[in-house]
Design the sequence.
């Protein structure tokens, strides 16, 4: 078919982002714990009395006996300020203690209102050294608007298609002979070009997770295969880094260049199950399964990308099953199209082959790199 017009087609990639609510975005997000809330104390002139207010107390209020406020004391018996804690006693009052020894300070008066969050305390013989404090406590959020929430925001990111083209010129007689004997298609060459572009973009955005030395340490009895087995540690570092960054899953595929392939393909069969070698190993191709969890692909030109190591390189990623699992978008508009074949009077034919697709990295957290060193 004929090549389309030169105007590019714009497509959209959709990502979903979870926005943190009022509580901590980590392990306390869905429970009723308010961790490390910044509190500013109001101190009297002598610094012996402090008052303040806790921010979250709607619904059923603050749960009695759960308030712990980290403060700093200026003790009469110490040459410098020390860390301390104000603890809700569950009966409308508070206690004061040193953090290092657990020794109690003398409290003249104290109060805490679990429905309003207001508190006050006066100590005797000592003073507060700073108005800065942090509070951790639990609240009863039944019927409260402060229940943790996840706001889903859908954003679109435009990606523009680009054309990759090859102009072919050949002798008609030679082409007939080649096709009759072996068959020939430029489609694999085009596909290899697309794969190369995808890998290059993922590589540029990926963070280096670790570096593996291909030489055993000094004083270690030399066993090359046993040393190469230590490479598994670096793979686990990269895989766990992906899981930590995404909070979803571990790395499950690997692309290696010649140097990294030398290490992986030298591992014992119990660690690396090699796939049958293709008759023609051109471009990106699958070479086996590592540790039963990493699908390994080889692409020799990985070593030609920016920031690579001369000793070997590895790109790890995670491939999910849902649209929101995507880290990289490949949006083909036309997988392969050609111009009409033109044959001149000298039996020399001309023809153009091209593809049009869009690519974009949308979540670099699902990619990690490992560099090999001497």
Sequence:
């Amino acid at each position: 078919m004929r090549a389309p017009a030169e105007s590019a087609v714009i497509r959209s990639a959709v990502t979903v982002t979870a926005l943190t609510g009022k509580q901590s975005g980590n392990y306390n997000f869905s429970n009723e714990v308010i961790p490390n809330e910044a509190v500013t104390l109001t101190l009297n002139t002598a610094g012996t009395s402090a008052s303040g207010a806790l921010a979250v107390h709607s619904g059923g209020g603050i749960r009695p006996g759960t308030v712990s406020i980290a403060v700093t004391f200026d003790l009469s018996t110490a040459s410098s300020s020390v860390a301390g804690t104000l603890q809700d006693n569950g009966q409308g009052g508070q206690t004061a203690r040193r953090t290092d020894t657990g020794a109690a300070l003398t409290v003249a008066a104290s109060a805490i209102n679990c429905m309003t969050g207001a508190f006050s305390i006066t100590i005797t013989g000592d003073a507060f050294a700073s108005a800065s404090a942090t509070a951790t406590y639990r609240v009863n959020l039944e019927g409260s608007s402060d229940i943790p929430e996840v706001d889903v925001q859908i954003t679109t990111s435009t990606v523009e298609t680009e054309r990759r083209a090859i102009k072919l010129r050949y002798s008609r007689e030679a082409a007939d002979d080649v096709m009759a004997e072996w068959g020939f298609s430029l489609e694999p060459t085009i596909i290899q070009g697309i794969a190369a572009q995808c890998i290059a973009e993922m590589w540029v955005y990926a963070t280096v997770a670790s570096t593996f030395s291909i030489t055993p340490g000094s004083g270690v009895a030399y066993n090359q295969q046993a040393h190469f087995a230590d490479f598994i540690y670096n793979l686990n570092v990269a895989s766990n880094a992906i899981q930590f960054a995404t909070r979803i899953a571990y790395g499950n595929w690997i692309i290696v260049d010649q140097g990294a392939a030398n290490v992986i393909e030298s591992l014992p069969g119990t660690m690396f199950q090699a796939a049958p070698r293709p008759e023609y190993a051109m471009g990106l191709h699958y070479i086996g399964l590592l540790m039963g969890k990493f699908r390994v692909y080889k692409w020799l030109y990985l070593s030609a990308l920016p920031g690579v190591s001369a000793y070997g390189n590895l790109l790890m990623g995670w491939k999910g099953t849902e649209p929101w699992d995507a880290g990289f978008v490949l949006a083909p508009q036309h997988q392969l199209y050609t111009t009409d074949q033109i044959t001149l009077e000298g039996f020399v034919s001309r023809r153009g082959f091209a593809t049009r697709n869009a690519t974009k990295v949308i979540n670099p957290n699902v990619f990690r790199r490992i560099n090999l060193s001497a």
